[in-house]
Amino acid sequence: MSHTVESPGSATVPASVPPSPLRTASWARIRELFALDPTTVHLNTGTVGAMPYEVLDTVDRVTRQWTGGLLDVYRPAMFTEYRAFIGRTFGVDEDEIVICHNATEGVARVIHGLDLRAGDEVVTTTHECYSVLSNFNLLRNRHGIVMRTVTPPSGHDVRAEEIIDLVESAITPRTKVLSFAAITLFTGTMFPVRQLCELAHRHGLTTVIDGALIPGMLDVNLRDYGADFITCSGSKFQCGPLGTGLIYVRNKVVPESNPLPLPTFWPLISTWYPMMGSPPPRTTNEVASYNMGDYLQSAGSANLARGAALTRAFELWDDIGRDRIERYVMDLAEYARGRLIEAFGEKAMYSPGVDPRLRSPLIAFNPFRRPEDAWNIKKFITFVKRLETEHRIWTRWTEFDVPGSPHQHYAARITTHLFNTRDEIDHSVRTMVRLAEEMS
Ligand SMILES: Cc1ncc(COP(=O)(O)O)c(C=O)c1O
């Protein structure tokens, strides 16, 4: 990295430095780090988080450093140190991490880089983000692949085995790819990622995981999931700048995590891919034969502040403690789930609650008394809008298929994060109860 650009702190921090005071700071103190509007309640991190002031400052500072100088913008745009730093947080190497523009771009670059031909089948679910389904559908229209989509069960009582059995039932001898979200955005279901990847290994499938909601929420080792590709957002739970995302691309064979050979992959949008001839064959062991991360990262000039600011957000999370953040976020979600069930009943819940493996901090529910209101889109739009404009509570509504239902269902969705509090949940649930009554 050029001497004029800041590098991730811990790359230069000696091992003897004591842990950051943030490691034991109160959640009230941690909340002060964020550029939150004190008059609003932000329960929509599943869409976009709130940036810490330090991240905002980094965007500004690094943008200024690179303005009007005579600096080489191409080499730093490889984000080598930032990728190494972020990779370490997730237990993977620099050659397996790419800083891209968002989850949508990341997954599109993966899907269109797969070596799929007419008749090849992709197993996925109807609960995937539009960014996933539209790109596979484009491949269907363009190349004649076949999409086999299943509709996952929703509701308080769903168990992980139901999801695994359903996915398995869609796999045929022509299936080449299994794709699903680690945490779904519509019902907030935490998919059993490792078990589904093991299922994929048994059937020789390439796995494409939409992990948009993983960074900043879960303290995980990405390699341990056993997937081939995981695409992430940097601006949701990780609270980096808008326009940041990550691609994890498996670039070596570590049999304990995934024993399958590396899939053929075409790195789209690359100025590193050879201009003549072919790259070396992909490795069959734990030593990479080339840096696939560089192939994808090298994509012309870049906004250099993005890499620095996203890395600053990662450093802050490491200082606070990712394990601690995950626990807080999940505990607060359980508190919120309890309050929502008290207020609206178990039957109103679309998110899993009984099986702890499937719970996430995204909770979707029907706040209206009449079950048929669940397919009244106008009510949901109005409910979310009124929460926002009259009560300054920011949520969202979602729409999704429900097995056996002729209609799409709609739900209100809240998300808990490290800057939210129990008081905010109490206040929001009380407000939602009143508003739903008024609208019933
Ligand atoms: C699970 C999931 N995947 C993908 C996306 C797309 O993210 P982005 O619009 O930031 O690219 C979202 C957005 O909410 C999401 O929740």
Structure notes:
The protein is of the alpha/beta class and 440 residues long. It folds into 2 domains: 76-312, 3-Layer(aba) Sandwich (Aspartate Aminotransferase, domain 2), CATH 3.40.640.10; 323-439, Aspartate Aminotransferase, domain 1, CATH 3.90.1150.10. It has 13 helices and 12 strands. It has helices at residues 27-31, 53-65, 80-89, 103-111, 130-143, 160-169, 193-202, 222-225, 292-297, 304-320, 322-344, 377-391, 422-439, and strands at residues 41-42, 97-100, 121-125, 146-150, 175-181, 206-210, 229-233, 245-249, 362-365, 393-394, 396-401, 408-415. The strands form 3 sheets. Strands 2-8-7-6-5-3-4 form a 7-stranded mixed beta sheet, with helices on both faces. Helix 7 links the parallel strand 5 (175-181) and strand 6 (206-210). It binds pyridoxal-5'-phosphate (PLP). Residues 46-47, 102-104, 129, 131, 181, 185, 210, 212-213, 233 line the site of pyridoxal-5'-phosphate. The site of pyridoxal-5'-phosphate has 13 residues, from helix 4. Keywords: Aminotransferase, Pyridoxal phosphate, Transferase. GO terms for molecular function: transaminase activity. It comes from Micromonospora qiuiae. Residues 1-21 are annotated as: Disordered.
